[in-house]
Amino acid sequence: MAKNILIVGGGLSGTIVANGLCRQLSKELRDGKVGITLLGTSDQHLYQPGLLYVPFGRIREAELFRDQRKVLDRRVNFFIDPARNIDVDAGQVTTQSGKMHRYDYLVIATGSRIMPQTIPGMAEAAHWFYDLDGARKMRDALSAFEGGKIVVNVNAPHKCPVAPLEITFMLYDYLKGRGLWEKSEITYTYPIGRLHALEPVALWAKPEFDKIGVKYETFFNCKEVDPAARTISSEEGVSLPFDMLITIPPHQGAEVIGDSNLGKGGWVPTNPKTLHREGSTNVFVVGDTTNIPISKAGSTAHFEADTVIDNLVSLVQEDRWARDYDGKVFCFVETGMNSGTYVWFNYTTPPNPGPPSQMIHWFKLAYNRLYWLSARGLL
Amino acid sequence: MSERQIIDARGAFCPGPLMELIAALKLSAVGEEVEVLSSDKGSVTDIPEWVKKVGHTLVTTTEKEGYWSVVVRKAK
């Protein structure tokens, strides 16, 4: 009897897992011993990091998308039919269309979503670039911007932890390029007592901000936004005026996770090394969906997906465990329109970002294209 | 009283113990407690500093073997 591997979610991690399994389980697929099914939410695959460039008109929207069916190996049974309920006790997933999928192994890769609506006034008054619609609106607002106070507000939790710094540096370059910097002011707010969660990155960013004149307010967790008065207020009691508000909204996991009682806020309790859902040995969790205290980032999703592929292949072929996830994360950091750096770390190695250079910026631009090889499981 | 949520942020470089605590408290009800385990000694100062600014309650700060336990109760 064929073993059914069911993947819920067609973002980066779900797609890498599906494609990687196809490559390594070719014989089992050919012999009908394994079936791989992916339940997605869209017929399009979005390159999410590319959204950073949209507000500045630095990427064409068509470059952000590929047909998900073409990104996926043809041997993957792909359905655009999102999960409505995940029943890990019964070993089955029910979809929005009412279909039921049984599984031997389940990979939960349902990702995260922005929740600006959880903060009063934020959805009405703020701009963001974490989805295409928001990034388009921000592009239009920036085009019409003629100078004034900009607040870049960061909320917890959020994915892509370096994006807030990147958008700030790019915003500075953008305003400078349009001759608006002398008439403008950027204030960057961050939830904890420094400019970034990673201490070495925060230590690097502070003098950079000081050098270019970006202001900052730390220990700032947004409580509410007043769209009429154009002010943003924090739980800590600070209020800032703005002419333009750019927010990194708080995130939550997918609705189906909460609806299935799999985790508070949509985050599934997950073993940080095995990536098993806590309490299950045939359910894996990858990408933003986990509750592991680690960066929610594309690279995290990628390295976790590689681990899950190795273990699933090993379990199917040899009934043994292959390896644990070591907590590896790698992030490019755009430090302006023409320079960049990177940072990597794992559970035991602290981050140590190097000096920014134009070459790393170019490599990031190259990766914007190479991403599709990652999604296909080739890189 | 509901079960205390425990966040094991030992060895977590990003987003780190305080950011994890902030995210967890957003999903907690008033009166619920969250315990953060941190191998970063800085948590012993930055978590209480933030808790005081916001007005939550610091329940305990305890040094264990090679890490710290900080318990916070959501107050508002």
Written overview of the protein:
The complex is a heterodimer of chains A (379) and B (76). Chain A has ten helices and 22 strands. By secondary structure, chain A is of the alpha/beta class. Chain A has two domains: 3-111 and 254-328, 3-Layer(bba) Sandwich (FAD/NAD(P)-binding domain); 115-250, FAD/NAD(P)-binding domain. The two termini of chain A are 32 Å apart. Chain B has helices at residues 17-26, 43-54, and strands at residues 5-8, 33-38, 57-63, 68-73. Chain B has a four-stranded mixed β-sheet, with helices on one face. In chain B, helix 1 (17-26) links the parallel strand 1 and strand 2 (33-38). The longest helix of chain B has 12 residues, at 43-54. Chain B starts with a strand and ends with a strand. Classes of the chains: A alpha/beta (379), B alpha+beta (76). The A-B interface holds A 118, 156-157, 161, 191-193, 197-199, 219, 221, 235-237, 250, 264-265, 293-295, 327, 329, 345, 347-348, 350-351 and B 7-9, 11-20, 22-23, 26-27, 42, 46, 49-50, 53-54.
Secondary-structure blueprint of this entry?
The complex is a heterodimer of chains A (379) and B (76).
Chain A: E1 3-8, H1 12-24, H2 26-30, E2 34-40, E3 44-46, E4 65-67, H3 68-71, E5 77-80, E6 83-87, E7 92-95, E8 100-102, E9 105-108, E10 112-114, H4 122-125, E11 126-127, H5 132-144, E12 149-154, H6 163-177, E13 185-189, H7 199-212, E14 215-217, E15 222-226, E16 231-234, E17 239-241, E18 244-248, E19 251-253, H8 255-259, E20 283-285, H9 298-318, E21 329-334, E22 340-345, H10 358-375
Parallel strand pairs in A: 1-2, 1-9, 2-5, 9-20, 11-18, 12-13, 12-18, 13-14
Antiparallel strand pairs in A: 3-4, 6-7, 7-8, 10-19, 15-16, 16-17, 21-22
Helix pairs in contact in A: 1-9
Chain B: E1 5-8, H1 17-26, E2 33-38, H2 43-54, E3 57-63, E4 68-73
Parallel strand pairs in B: 1-2
Antiparallel strand pairs in B: 2-4, 3-4
